[in-house]
Batch of 2 targets.
Target 1
Amino acid sequence: MDDTQSRISVANLVLARLGVIYALMLRDMRTRFGRSHVSYLIAIAWPFTHLIVLVSIMAFVNRLAPIGGDPVVFVTSGALAYILCLYPARAMGMALDMNRALFLFPVVRPFDVIVARAIIEFITSFIVIILSFLTSLFAGVDLIPLDEFIFASGVISIIFFSLSLGILNVVLSSIFRMWNITFMFIMLILYATSGIFVLPSSLPPGVRDMMWYNPLLHAIEWMRSAYYDGYGDDMLSKGYFLAIGTGCLLFGLLGERYLRGKLLTG
Amino acid sequence: MIRLHNVFKFFRTKGGAKIILDHVSMDFRAGISYGILGINGAGKSTTMRMLAGTDLPNAGAITRSARVSWPLGFSGGLHPAMTGRENVQFVARIYGQNPARAIEFVEDFAEIGSYMDEPYFKYSSGMAQRLAFGLSMAIDFECYLIDEVTAVGDSRFQQRCHDEFAKRRDHADVIMISHSMETIRTYCSRAVVLAHGVMHEFSDVDDAVELYNKLNQ
């Protein structure tokens, strides 16, 4: 096979994979909840409603933000980080269990299903963010961050972290039957110790040292540092957060490579 | 067409490892249709899934140089909540074929009428099989894997299946599992007997049937 020919066949292979992934995305959006075209709207409405409920309750409880300014901004910056961490990772973890019947068709590989869902979750996350800003606009809350670059890099990093965690979730849920429930439990613990309700700087140093290992804390600190000048200087480690995300991605991809047969048959 | 390189496949059972293929190398050549024979539990369906690529060997490799179908005879991959039309569109898309043309073909072939726009779970088993079979015919495969799917639908539909297969025999091959020696003789010119983890290949189907009958005793 000469060079041009092999290039054409590589291009064909890539096109074929993209075709499969596109078809899977359409199918996933249609069948995630129920069987109609509005099914995907529920996939957006769910995390969005969760976010609104969290913000409403917490803003009502914390009439006064611990750091000054509008309490809604304080709460939203934390809750948004949590929602963006939780939902994509959880949806990814369930991707194969919901679609295992698809593997009757040999053209569909587990990796295609994972990628298709990752793209959908990426899009969903952005729609949730846009909806949040639109809602804040109507509610008269100024949610525009102080530093747009920190905000945007934070959002991208958090989604990267969540999708990487999701790929690891796919592998673990194929090995351990109870993994999806265990994962929710772990996320609850991370949530409770993430400093979403209280400022970490108001806690004793011993507790803060323990909390530092919680990646969700860094996600929240990152988001808040986009809103408050000098926030997170003492605790936020972007390197740690990205390293944990990259580690999950690495182990997830390794698992996909070596447990492919297990992923296929469940 | 499909080549097995030192393929090893086993299942763990309570009584120890059950070996399906014990380091088997074999070449299913293009232009030849094969029958796979074996007693119950020999691993015919597992072998078929490995040929398709929906199950992986524990060691060794399987390479395909033709468009190989999914194992026909199962309709499990279709989504129960999606309509027949949506299912056909989906499968046509993943195989890179024109969805509209696939639908036209299946509508004509499966004859399920307005049920095309009903969710798949509402189908009777006959309708479901006709849709699944029509779908596999709507996609241009070079090798059809057939797992015991000789008795789909009424006799008229069976005749249509037979005719449709006959039409594509000159550019498509068949690898089939069947307990009906008549069917194997009709479709296949070579046969493989699967027993104790070994594939015995025969150039004469009658010799294979003879060994199969001996194993069955």
Note: The first helix of chain A runs from residue 3 to 31.
Target 2
Amino acid sequence: MSEAKTPAPLTETQLRERFLAVPFARYLGIDLELRGDELTLVMPYREELIGNIMLPALHGGTLGALLELAAVATVSVKQRQAHLPKTIDITIDYLRSGRPVATFARARLTRLGRRIASVHAEAWQHERADPIAALNGHFLLTQSDT
Amino acid sequence: MSETPPTPPSAAQVVQMMVAATPYARALGFEVVSVGEGRATMKTPYRKDVIGDPETGVIAGGVITALLDHVCGAAVMAALAERQSIATLDLRIDYMRGAEPGRDILAEAHCYKLTRSVAFVRAVAYEDGPDNPVANAAGAFMIASLGDRKMGANLKPPQ
């Protein structure tokens, strides 16, 4: 019986391996960058991500997916677990239309409990201080891990 | 037919055109199942490249988010008397359970209230029927969202 130890922080390589094993993250072309405990996701622009061809603007579903992935990946960084938590609910606010350029996303844990994490995430393009979409969500933490 | 003046497209035709003209909906393979007054049902096919959990093969939540967003927009289109630009203001999604691996997901939406500026919509996603949902959604959409913005307005960086 070994004593419970605090797991070591995840490295960027470990996180990228786990994350890029998710086919849909690869499909969206998302990459990540971990600096200290701050995680940034990047979704490069590609024509397939367009939802409105007139403006043109990114599909809301692409921003929702990016924000949700930023939230779950940030939870796993804080939890020091490679397992991704399960989404319980999310609310996405669309603040302005997404331009046909790269989009970035970061998430912040409002609360990390034993079973539930409350997360706020924001996506931006040209300026970090001027988000184009935001997410609030609750995520069920995975308990068992090696 | 070429002699008669063109009749305005039906709600079903508008929704079909909307899916056909949306690159992301086409890329994910969304199909229109049915369209009614303020109602729409769509399907997204199960595909290996949209899996969210490689261990179980469950489809990614982000695909269901996109389907629910899109079908809600379609229900708003089907509720509008004339064609107008719309944009999602907010969307709340409750995930009741993981989708069954290997199965297509359907989503049906109802635009239950339409005001001059905002449309309110509810939607549910499932494999077999709405009594066993994968996810529920509630959304609000802006109507005439383009305002005075012109075509290609987003090609310029923000001022």
Note: Strands of chain A lie at 31-35, 38-43, 50-52, 57-58, 86-94, 103-112, 116-124, 133-140.
